[in-house]
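Hi all, long-time lurker, first post. I run a small reading group and we've been trying to get comfortable going from sequence to structure in the token notation. Rather than ask abstract questions, I figured I'd post a concrete chain and ask someone more experienced to write out its structure so we can walk through it together at our next meeting. Sequence below, copied exactly:
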Amino acid sequence: MDGLLTVAHHAEGSLPLDILVSLTLLSVVPFLLMMCSSFVRIVVVLSLVRSAIGTSSLPPNAVLSGLALVLTCVVMAPTFTQITHNAIDPYSHGRLSQSQALDRATQPLRAFMLRQTRVSDIELFERVARQRDVSPSASPLVVLVPAFVVGELRSAFAIGFALYLPFVAIDLAVSAMLMGLGMMMLSPPVVSLPVKLLLFVMVDGWALVCGGVASSFR
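-- Answer (accepted) --
Happy to help. Here is the structure in token form:
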């Protein structure tokens, strides 16, 4: 009887701690979504496309963030499925503790991040964190996450550079045309913006950009 009371007392004492841990995890989910998923690359590429077109506020930030979130769900669907199958479902049925569920949940995320991350970036942050040399697959998250984010920013800017070139060519052509016609008082962006919008719509630009950035993940 005393043993049962002791177990019940421990269970009651651990319940507030479980709730606190659960609320903490819920509060960091948006941060994890940004830092450990495809969201960073997608939202940066979409923002660079908007900047290249020349519309500083259209589409609005809320639309770009929503589109990036949807594309992130599409790209990360296999990883989320593995997390649900390996960690969330067993934990909800009481077959895993919180620490075991967290450990299993991080494995698919680690595998995804490792596929996108260069070994040189991991080695750089190992030196920054003063970690001993280990294999990339065994790198702690404090090293893997910043290496992954740096790689995502590099890839996003490389894609953005390729997307910028056609729009820069249009701006140069419009400027040369206006100078040749002697219309130097007319601002080139006033003429080039409709041309860029028309070209972007004709080639179905948003579909191409979304499909291209989604397919860029390994």
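A couple of things your group might point at:
Confidence is low (pLDDT under 50) at residues 1-14.
The CA atoms of residues 175 and 188 lie 6 Å apart.
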